[in-house]
Design a protein that fits this description.
The protein is an alpha/beta fold. It has one domain: Glycerol-3-phosphate (1)-acyltransferase. It contains 9 helices and 9 strands. It has a 7-stranded mixed sheet with strand order 1-9-6-2-5-3-4, sandwiched between helices. Strands 7-8 form a two-stranded antiparallel sheet. Strand 3, helix 3 and strand 4 form a beta-alpha-beta unit. Helix 6 crosses helix 8. The protein is globular, with a radius of gyration of 24 Å.
C-alpha cells in the first residue's frame, strides 16, 4: 500500500464527510451513547456489528468519536472493497485502510484507534431472515492483534439499519447463479455479493428509522494473554467481545421500543414542538419591556 494511503483525513476531509452525511443524519437522527467508555489515550480497538449493506451507520460513530474526543478512528476495510478503484479511493479519502494484518499492526504500533468488524463482508451481505446477526464464525484475528499489542478492546453495537430494508433476494438464491459465476471469474467471493432489498413500499428507498449505537466498556486484552500465538486466549477474548456486542444489541432493541422518536413523523412532530416553544420564548424576550436606567436616589448626588 502506498504511504499516503495511511495518512488520516485532515479537517477538510472531516468537514466533507460531515457535509455528505447531513441529509442522511436528518433522515435517521442517530443517537449514540457511551463515549465516556473510550480510553482517554486514544489507543483502543473498536469491535462491533455490521448492519445491512454496511455503510449507513458506522460513519456517525466515527464522526461522533471525533467530535467528542478529537480522536479519528481508522477503519479496517474488507480487502474486497479495495479491488474497486473508485470505491477504494473514497474509502482511503476518509481514512479507511485495507484490513490486512500488516496494516492493522502498523496502525497499532503508531498507537492509533482502530475499528474492525469481525463479521466482515459476510455480515454485510445479509440473507433473508437475518436480523442483527453476528456472523463472526471462528475468526480470532482481531483478538490475536489485541493480545499482541496489549490493546484494549471496546465493543460497540448498532441497530436501526436492518429495519430500513427487507432482503428479497440474497447470494444463496437461484437468481444469483449468473452473478455468482461472474464473481468467481473476477476472483470475488460469491458469499459477499450484496442482497437485493426493498424499503419504502416496493422501492429500495430506506424506511425512515432512527439509528442507534452504543459504545461499551473496554475489555482489557492483557487479562487474556499477550501473544499472537495463543489461540485459546484469542478465542476467549473474541467470545467475551462477541457477548458484549450481542448484549448491547439486545439493550438497544429493547430501549428503542420506548423511544417515541424512533420513526420519522414523531421525530418531526417533536422538532416542530421544540421549535415552536423556542420561537415563543424568543418572541416573549423580544417584546418584554426592558428596565430603564436607574434613577439616582434623592440626595445621593455630590455637590
Amino acid at each position: 500500500m502506498q504511504a499516503d494511503a495511511f495518512e488520516p483525513p485532515g479537517p477538510a476531509g472531516v468537514a466533507a464527510a460531515r457535509a455528505l452525511l447531513a441529509p442522511w443524519r436528518a433522515w435517521t437522527d442517530p443517537r449514540i451513547d457511551g463515549y465516556a467508555n473510550l480510553p482517554a489515550d486514544g489507543r483502543y480497538l473498536l469491535v462491533g456489528n455490521h448492519t445491512t449493506l454496511g455503510v449507513f451507520d458506522v460513519p456517525f460513530v466515527v464522526l461522533g468519536i471525533y467530535d467528542e474526543t478529537g480522536v479519528l478512528v481508522r477503519s479496517l476495510g474488507d480487502r474486497q472493497h479495495f479491488r474497486v478503484p473508485l470505491w477504494r479511493a473514497v474509502l482511503a479519502r476518509f481514512g479507511t485502510v485495507d484490513g490486512s494484518r500488516e496494516n492493522a499492526r502498523r496502525l497499532m504500533r503508531a498507537g492509533e484507534a482502530v475499528l474492525v468488524f469481525p463479521g466482515g463482508g459476510r455480515e454485510v451481505s445479509r440473507r433473508r431472515g437475518d436480523y442483527y446477526p453476528l456472523v463472526w464464525r471462528e475468526r480470532i484475528g482481531f483478538a490475536r492483534l489485541a493480545l499482541e499489542h496489549g490493546y484494549p478492546v471496546v465493543p460497540f453495537a448498532m441497530v436501526g439499519v436492518d429495519d430500513m430494508w427487507d432482503v428479497v433476494a440474497d447470494a444463496d438464491d437461484a437468481i444469483y447463479a449468473p452473478v455468482r459465476a461472474l464473481a468467481r471469474r473476477a476472483d470475488i467471493d460469491p458469499e459477499l455479493l450484496p442482497p437485493l432489498v426493498r424499503g419504502l413500499g416496493p422501492t429500495p428507498l430506506p424506511r425512515p428509522q432512527r439509528i442507534y449505537a452504543r459504545i461499551g466498556a473496554p475489555i482489557d486484552a492483557r487479562a487474556f494473554g499477550c501473544s499472537w500465538a495463543d489461540g485459546d486466549a484469542a478465542a476467549a477474548l473474541r467470545d467475551a467481545v462477541r457477548s458484549a456486542v450481542a448484549k448491547a444489541i439486545e439493550e438497544l432493541l429493547a430501549e428503542r421500543e420506548d423511544d417515541a422518536a424512533r420513526r420519522l413523523l414523531p421525530r418531526l412532530g417533536g422538532r416542530a414542538r421544540r421549535l415552536t416553544v423556542a420561537r415563543a420564548a424568543a418572541l416573549r424576550a423580544l417584546l418584554s419591556p426592558r428596565p430603564g436606567p436607574r434613577s439616582a436616589a434623592p440626595g445621593s448626588q455630590r455637590e
